[in-house]
Write a structure and sequence with these properties.
about 180 residues, 3 domains, alpha+beta, 4 helices, 3-stranded antiparallel sheet, about 20% strand, Nucleotide Exchange Factor Grpe, Chain A, domain 2
Amino acid sequence: MSEKETMDNETEPSATAGDVAAAPLSEQQLAGLRDSAVKATQYYEQWLRTSADLENYKKRAARERQEAIKFANEALLEKLIPVLDNFEMAMAAANAPNTSVQSLQAGINMIQAQFKAALADAGLQEIEANGKPFDPNLHEAISQQETGDAPEGQVLQQVRKGYKLRERLLRPASVVVAKKPGS
């Protein structure tokens, strides 16, 4: 083949799908296309509504989450208000004439018990450490003391109470731990 023939063959259009004349559609095919177009429009509108509902849900959930955070301590504060009232009454009684020390002590002991009960209802637990083995997950050793009266590693004295909120440690108990006497 000569160069000219090769170029002529390359420039001749080849038959493609676009060159085929479109055959007219039958009524049944047109009806099917119309039905498909109607369904596509319905699905698109349904998708738009669902998308809008999802966005509204996200906004509402975020608003409710913020409100829950804002008022999370409401129940605890409702339990502590009566304790505050009793403290105020105790202060008024302490400033009144003819108040005995014993009655003030009894009143303060009752307020302390009420305060501890309110905190316990909220999930606060005291960590009792005296006489127990040292646990670094619950205790903070502030010193060691040599003794032959207790096994090594046992808590001899609790200097400051520790607290947990349900299963989470809020503050470890500060303790003095026993160690064997040196030779």
